[in-house]
């Protein structure tokens, strides 16, 4: 499945800040360190030089990825018409059949974070939630079988 190109404004800002940091701060420092290490002579046994070159390749790879990704990402801002229904960027409180409640936020695939309970718009739970309202029932097929959730609350960060 192709990943969606949606992102929250804060998620886009985070990626943009990472790109600027890597390009304007980190890369020049590593480039200088590699240059200094190269000046010491034999590069084949020079750990600082070898590590620095490896780190430069990592930085360049990440910069290329972020540059391409930021070009195609579409920022989705909150709109008052979303109130009462689940759309991108929503926080949702779900209750399972046993009465346990969990809260999730629907975000882009570039910003999902299980530790924060942020789930990707491309996940089965998020796809089942889109367009639903409070008190709706959703069914999600999981590896352990069908799970039913009830939507208790929906809110957005404005």
TrEMBL record:
UniProt domain Transcription elongation factor GreA/GreB N-terminal: residue ranges: 5-75
Matches recorded under InterPro entries: GreA/GreB_C_sf (IPR036953), TF_GreA/GreB_CS (IPR018151), Tscrpt_elong_fac_GreA/B (IPR028624), Tscrpt_elong_fac_GreA/B_C (IPR001437), Tscrpt_elong_fac_GreA/B_fam (IPR023459), Tscrpt_elong_fac_GreA/B_N (IPR022691), Tscrpt_elong_fac_GreA/B_N_sf (IPR036805), Tscrpt_elong_fac_GreB (IPR006358)
Ranges for domain Transcription elongation factor GreA/GreB C-terminal: 82-156
Pfam families: GreA_GreB (PF01272), GreA_GreB_N (PF03449)
Family annotation (Gene3D superfamilies): Transcription elongation factor, GreA/GreB, C-terminal domain, Transcription elongation factor, GreA/GreB, N-terminal domain
Signal peptide as annotated in the record: none
SUPFAM superfamilies noted in UniProt: FKBP-like, GreA transcript cleavage protein, N-terminal domain
Keywords carried by this UniProt record: DNA-binding, Elongation factor, Protein biosynthesis, Transcription, Transcription regulation
Recorded GO MF terms: DNA binding; RNA polymerase binding; translation elongation factor activity
Biological process terms in GO annotation: DNA-templated transcription elongation; regulation of DNA-templated transcription elongation
Role summary: Necessary for efficient RNA polymerase transcription elongation past template-encoded arresting sites. The arresting sites in DNA have the property of trapping a certain fraction of elongating RNA polymerases that pass through, resulting in locked ternary complexes. Cleavage of the nascent transcript by cleavage factors such as GreA or GreB allows the resumption of elongation from the new 3'terminus. GreB releases sequences of up to 9 nucleotides in length.
Homology family: Belongs to the GreA/GreB family. GreB subfamily.
Name the record gives this protein: Transcription elongation factor GreB
Provenance organism: Pasteurella canis
């Amino acid at each position: 499945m192709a990943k969606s190109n949606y992102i929250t404004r804060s998620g886009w800002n985070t990626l943009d800040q990472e790109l600027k940091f890597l390009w304007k701060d980190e890369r020049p420092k590593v480039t200088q360190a590699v240059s200094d290490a190269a000046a010491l002579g034999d590069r084949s046994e020079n750990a600082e030089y070898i590590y620095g070159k490896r780190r430069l390749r990592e930085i360049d790879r990440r910069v290329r990825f972020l540059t391409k990704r930021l070009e195609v990402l579409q920022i989705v801002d909150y709109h008052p018409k979303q109130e009462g229904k689940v759309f991108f960027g929503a926080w949702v409180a779900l209750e399972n059949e046993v009465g346990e409640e969990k809260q999730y936020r629907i975000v882009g695939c570039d910003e999902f974070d299980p530790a924060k309970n942020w789930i990707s718009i491309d996940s089965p739970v998020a796809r089942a939630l889109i367009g639903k309202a409070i008190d709706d029932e959703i069914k999600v097929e999981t590896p352990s079988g069908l799970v039913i959730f009830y939507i208790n609350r929906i809110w957005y960060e404005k």
